[in-house]
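Good morning C.,

I know you're traveling, so I'll keep this short. The sequence:
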Amino acid sequence: MTANISDTRDFHAPAARDSRDAGVVDHDETAVIEQADPRIDVDHAVTRDKVDRDQAKPSMLDYLRHAQMKSGRRPMELAREYFRLSRGRGKLTLEEYVQYGVYDTTRHSSDEQSQFIANKRHWPITHICCDMTWQATTEDKWLCSHILAGSGVRIPETLAVIDKSDRSYPGTHKISTAEQFRDFATSEDGVDLFGKENRGICSFGVFLIEDADENSMKLKGHDQISYDTFMDQFVGETPYLLQRQVTNHSFFDPYADNLATVRVCILLDETGVKIPFAVLKLPSRENLADSFWRPGNLACDLDTQSGKIQGARSKDALGTTDHEVHPETGEPLLGQVVPMWDQVLDLAHRCAPIFHSVRYQSMDIAITRDGPVLIEINTGGGFDLPQLASGRGFLTDEVCDFFRACGYTKL
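The C-alpha cells, ready to paste straight into the viewer:
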C-alpha cells in the first residue's frame, strides 16, 4: 500500500481495478455479503439485487484521488491520516475513510475523526452486547410478527408465506407451488401484495404485485411474468412473507411514491431506552425500497428529540452529496419535521424491551396516516447508515460507554 501511494503523488494516472482492494458492503440491515459470483442466476430476485449492489467498486487509488480533489490536501498527508485511523479504535477501511468524508478537516477535528467506526466491527460488538440466542426472534420476520402480535405494536399484516420446504407456519396461509400462488394472487387478498424475504436484509428481492390474472401477473418495475417463472426463478428456494402494502403518511407525498421508513438505533440498559441516531430513508421514484444502497435513495439525519431533518444525503461509490431540497422534486427537506414523532419514539420505547436481551438493536418504522408501523426490528444495526446520513461518527461518548458496559472493551 505504501509503495502504491508513493508512486502516485498526484493521483492522475489511470487506476487499475484490483480485486484485492478492501471494500465495505453498504449493509444498513446488518450483514456482510460476499461479492456475487457472475455465473449465478440473476433471474433470482435476491441474487439479482445483490449483484446490483456489489458491482465493481472503485480502486484504492480512485478513493485517494477523490479525497485529494475534494479536500485539496497532499496525498501523503491523507495517507498518514488514513493509516492512523485504520489502526485506531474505529479501524476504518480506506473506502469508509473516503465515503464518510473523514478526510475533510473543515468538518471534523481529530477527536471527531476518531469517532468513526468500521462496519466490520458491527458483529463482534453485537455478539458482546446481545444474547445471540435471541437472534431468530428478530431476523425471522414471520416469527417476529407472531411475538409482536399481541404487543399493541402495529406491524404489517402478513397474509401468506411462500416456502417450498416442509416448515409449517401455524395460523398463516402457506404457498408452495405456482398454482397455489396464482390462486392467492388472483384473490381479493392479492391486490397490492408486498413480498419480502423472510430472513432478508437490505430489501433484497422485494416485490409488489400491481395486477394479476389467470396466466400471469405484473410486478412493479418488471415485465409481465408467469407464475411458473415467478416461483421457479424469481423466488427459487427463498422463503417470502406476503404482506398487505403499507402506505406513507401524506407528509411524504412530495418526496416518495413508495414506502419510506425511519431507522432508529437503540441502546437498551438498566436505565431504559436510548436513541443515539435516527435516519429517515426516502426511496427515489424509481425504487420500490428505501435501502441506501439503491441509487437515488436519500438518507436524512434526524434530530432524535424532535424528528427535524438536519441533513439529507444521496450516495455514490465515492461518497455522499448533501441536499437542501429533494433532488427529484425540488421540495424543501432541511428543517422539515417528520410527523407523529412522539408516537415513533413511543413505539420504539414500547417495543425495545420485548427483546430485552437484544441490548443493541435497530428498528425500521413507517409512518402512515393512522400512525407508526414497525416494519422490522434487527439484532444490532450497521454503523454505515447513521454515519453516512449524519456525517458524524457512531462512537459518541454515550455509545462508547454503552458498548464498554456491555463488555466490549476494544474502544
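Safe travels,
E.
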